[in-house]
Write a structure and sequence with these properties.
This protein is mostly helical and 272 residues long. Helix content is 68%, strand content 0%. Helix 4 runs antiparallel to helix 5 and helix 5 packs antiparallel against helix 8. It is globular and about 60 Å long.
C-alpha cells in the first residue's frame, strides 16, 4: 500500500515534484515557529544583534580604520548577511530528513525533495531578512548604495549554495557517525566566526595570514561581495571561481554519499 503507482508524463511529474518542494519548503519555514512572521522577526533580530556587536567590537578595538572607505554599517552587514546565510543553510540541509526518516514512508517523497526544500526555506528566510533590514536602514539613515547590485546578490546566492553543498555532505555522513558529524559541524561554524573574514579586508591582510582564510569558500564570497558593494574596493586575493568549484565538488560528493547511505542506512542504528 506504500507504492506510488500513478502513471505520469514528464511534465506532470515535474510539476508534481515542484508542488512537493513548495509544500515541504513551507513546512520547513513553519517548523521552528508556528507563524512564519515570528520566524522572520527572530532571524532579523539575530542579524541586527550581530551587526551591533561587531560594530561595537570594531570601534572599541580600533579596527574601524581598516574597513573599506564607505558606509561602515554596510561594510559590517555585507559580512554578517553572507555569514548567517551560509551557516543557517548548512544547518538546515544537514538537519533535513534522511532516508530513515518516517517522512520518507510517504510516497513520492524522497531525500532530494527534502534537501532542496531545506535549502530553499533557509534562502527564503535569509533573503526576506536582508531585504527588510536594508529597507529599514535606507528609510531611517539612507545611503544604501551598491556599486553593482547583481554581483553582490550573486555572492549572496553563492554563500547560500556553498552552505547547502557542505550541508549535503554532513547529512550523508550523519547516519554513520552522528556525534562526530555534530562535532565537525560545530567546529566549522565556530571557525567561520573568524575565517570567514567578515571583519577584515583581504587586501589589508599580511601574506602569511591569508592561508588561514583562503581555504574557506565563505571568505571568497564575502570579499567579492564587498568588491561589488563598494566602489573603493577591488579584491585581489579572492575569487568567485573557487567557491563555485568548491560547492559543485562538495554537492557531487554529498549526493553520491547520500545515495550510498540511503541504500544501507537502517532506522535500527539509532535504537537504544
Amino acid at each position: 500500500m506504500f507504492q506510488y503507482s500513478s502513471k505520469q508524463n514528464g511534465i506532470s511529474a515535474a510539476l508534481n515534484v515542484l508542488r512537493l518542494i513548495f509544500h515541504n519548503t513551507v513546512r520547513h519555514v513553519r517548523k521552528s515557529h508556528g507563524s512564519p512572521v515570528m520566524g522572520l522577526i527572530t532571524n532579523i533580530s539575530q542579524a541586527i544583534i550581530l551587526v551591533a556587536i561587531f560594530s561595537f567590537m570594531m570601534n572599541i578595538l580600533g579596527m574601524r580604520r581598516s574597513a573599506v572607505r564607505g558606509d561602515f554599517i554596510l561594510f559590517i552587514m555585507s559580512g554578517i548577511f553572507l555569514f548567517l546565510t551560509h551557516n543557517k543553510t548548512l544547518a538546515q540541509v544537514s538537519g533535513a530528513e534522511s532516508g530513515t526518516s518516517p517522512m520518507m514512508q510517504h510516497a513520492p517523497m524522497n531525500t532530494a525533495i527534502s534537501i532542496t526544500s531545506a535549502a530553499l526555506s533557509a534562502l527564503y528566510i535569509q533573503f526576506l531578512s536582508v531585504v527588510v533590514i536594508l529597507t529599514v536602514y535606507q528609510l531611517g539613515w539612507g545611503g544604501v548604495e551598491f556599486q553593482y547590485l547583481p554581483g553582490a546578490f550573486g555572492m549572496f546566492i553563492l554563500a547560500w549554495f556553498s552552505g547547502a553543498a557542505i550541508g549535503t555532505v554532513l547529512l550523508a555522513a550523519k547516519p554513520w557517525a552522528p556525534e562526530l558529524v555534530k562535532i565537525i559541524q560545530t567546529l566549522y561554524t565556530r571557525a567561520n566566526m573568524f575565517t570567514s573574514g567578515k571583519m577584515f579586508l583581504a587586501n589589508t591582510m599580511p601574506g602569511f595570514m591569508l592561508s588561514f582564510f583562503t581555504w574557506n569558500p565563505l571568505f571568497h564570497t564575502i570579499d567579492q561581495a564587498r568588491g561589488y558593494t563598494f566602489v573603493n574596493y577591488n579584491p585581489h586575493y579572492s575569487s568567485p571561481i573557487y567557491p563555485i568549484v568548491f560547492s559543485l565538488v562538495f554537492l557531487t560528493i554529498g549526493l553520491l554519499a547520500e545515495f550510498f547511505t540511503r541504500k544501507r542506512a537502517s532506522a535500527s542504528w539509532s535504537a537504544r
